[in-house]
Write a structure and sequence with these properties.
The protein has about 500 residues and is of the alpha+beta class. It has 5 domains: about 55 residues, no CATH class; about 70 residues, no CATH class; about 150 residues, no CATH class; about 70 residues, Resuscitation-promoting factor rpfb (Resuscitation-promoting factor rpfb fold); about 120 residues, Glucose Permease (Domain IIA) (Distorted Sandwich), CATH 2.70.70. The protein is built from 10 helices and 31 strands. Strands 19, 20, 23, 24, 25, 26, 27, 28, 29, 30 and 31 form an 11-stranded antiparallel beta sheet that branches. Helix 1 runs antiparallel to helix 2, helix 2 packs antiparallel against helix 3 and helix 6 packs parallel to helix 7. The longest helix has 23 residues. It is rod-shaped, with a radius of gyration of 51 Å.
Length: about 500
């Protein structure tokens, strides 16, 4: 082969790069016998081929094909560049989900390859990832009796929410242990028992509570306060039964109500209303999604009323009495077991009862000697001693239809004459008032009493105790307001009983 042919082949090989050089070497190998020139050319070709390899290698780069769920989305310069972008997205998702752990839900792969004069497209890869990448957070669903209450960041947050609501509705320092669907509630601490305080001996949720792991969008994670409010339920009206020791202010505090709101919910109640055991009143309270059942014990001390025995004495007038032995209440201790649901008693059982101090019997001596009858219109002084401090007639621009008596040592009030009690109770400014009807159209009034010892319809003898002097109603001090009426018209009492 002539030199020109070899030259053309070399030129063609040079132009075709590495592949051309290899073809030229293959062409010359069988022609090595043509002499030194061929051998020299072959050596030159081999040397040139090695140079071409180095040339190509210097211009070849490693790229990383990025595959999302098996789909090639482009070539990146390095996995680190993609990973840094993904970590930024995960941090943003976690922040939107109250710190829940964020993860990539797709299958993400990197495949390395060597490419001659290759170029990475990081921006294109990140744009494709922004469209295709599914970022989720690991959270939990709180489910009560099959009803989904909300989604929170982790199990600890869900357990804390259940514990806080359980403590609120049971009105006990409780914490949720979270070990089962129907779960136990444990006390946070065991304080020393106080007199008449309840001690929790057992507590449990009546509901099936489930905390279910879930992979959700960051926006699906609820604020913990919102989930707690859902579990607590909406406010509504409910009836409560009055129990021993209950007061209006105490009930209002128990149900987080203002006293005025409680009174508005129960027309007819006032701050002075005396509640009766067993009475029902309305309260406004939440209706929680959970029911906490507690078993408690409570030990109380209650009085044991004393009994009274009477002894008749013919030396005393009827209506007179003498205490031979004062009575005294005893004390007994009662232990109850109470079953409560969300703080309300649903069952009460007496488990122990014992007398601490027995009562002392009262012995009263009562008179049986008949009193002499007084002529109509003649009255006894209604107090034991004392004097008139304000007379009958006009005073300070107002008419005073009575005499006021005070300065007594014994505050016992007696009937000024025999008759029948027509009224015994509260009468506005008169306070505790007793009215007695007598023969001849007379009636006597006894006002501002501290205590009333007779009742309407009861017959009384002249001089019989009917109450105790006091300062009830519109009174500025302890005294008896004493009126005498004749046929409905007020009379001057001093005309009938004389001034003391």
């Amino acid at each position: 082969m002539d030199t020109e042919t070899i030259r053309r082949r070399l030129s063609a090989a040079w132009g075709e790069g590495k592949r051309g050089w290899r073809a030229a070497v293959a062409f010359l190998r069988p022609r090595r016998r043509e002499g030194a020139l061929a051998a020299l050319i072959t050596a030159a070709l081999v040397a040139a081929g090695f140079g071409a390899d180095r040339y190509v290698e210097a211009r070849t780069v490693t790229l990383y094909r990025v595959l999302v769920d098996g789909e090639d989305v482009g070539a990146a310069s390095s996995p680190d560049a993609v990973d840094a972008w993904i970590q930024s997205r995960l941090r943003q998702a976690s922040a939107r989900a109250d710190g829940a752990r964020a993860v990539v839900a797709n299958a993400l792969q990197f495949r390395a390859e060597r490419v001659y004069r290759g170029r990475a497209d990081d921006a294109g890869v990140l744009a494709a990832l922004d469209e295709r990448l599914a970022v989720k957070v690991e959270a939990v669903r709180l489910v009560v009796d099959g009803k989904m209450i909300g989604v929170v960041k982790n199990r600890a947050a869900a357990e804390a929410i259940v514990g806080r609501v359980a403590a609120k509705v049971a009105r006990e320092p409780l914490v949720y242990d979270g070990k089962a669907k129907t779960v136990k509630i444990a006390r946070l601490s065991a304080p020393a028992p106080k007199p008449e305080a309840e001690t929790v001996v057992d507590a449990a949720l009546k509901n099936d509570v489930e905390i279910v792991p879930a992979l959700v969008d960051p926006e699906a994670v609820d604020d913990e306060a919102v989930v707690e409010a859902r579990l607590m339920g909406e406010d509504g009206e409910a009836k409560v039964v009055i129990r021993p020791g209950d007061t209006l202010s105490g009930i209002a505090a128990r149900y987080n109500m203002k006293l005025d709101d409680l009174l508005a919910l129960n027309p007819g109640l006032t701050p002075e209303t005396i509640l009766q055991i067993g009475q029902e009143i309305l309260v406004r309270r939440a209706k929680p999604e959970i029911v906490v059942q507690t078993e408690t014990t409570k030990t109380v001390r209650v009085p044991v009323p004393y009994t009274t025995r009477t002894i008749e004495d013919a030396s005393l007038y009827k209506g007179e009495r003498r205490v031979q032995q004062p009575g005294k209440d005893g004390v007994k201790e009662i232990t109850y077991r109470l079953t409560r649901e969300n703080g309300d008693v649903v069952e009460e059982t007496v488990v122990d009862e014992r007398v601490i101090t027995p009562p002392v019997e009262a012995v009263i001596v009562v008179g049986t000697k008949p009193r002499p009858s007084a002529p109509a219109g003649q009255f006894l002084w209604p107090t034991r001693g004392g004097y008139i401090t304000s007379g009958y007639g006009w005073r300070g621009g107002k008419f005073h239809p009575a005499v006021d008596i005070s300065g007594v040592v014994d505050r016992t009030i007696v009937a000024a004459a025999a008759g029948t009690v027509t009224f015994a109770g509260w009468d506005g400014g008169y306070g505790h008032l007793v009215k007695i009807r007598h023969a001849g159209g007379y009636e006597t009034w006894y006002a501002h009493l501290a205590r009333i010892d007779v009742s309407a319809g009861q017959p009384v003898d002249q001089g019989q105790p009917i109450g105790v002097m006091g300062a009830t109603g519109h009174a500025t001090g302890v005294h008896l307001h004493f009126e005498i009426h004749l046929n409905g018209q007020a009379q001057d009492p001093t005309r009938y009983v004389g001034r003391r």
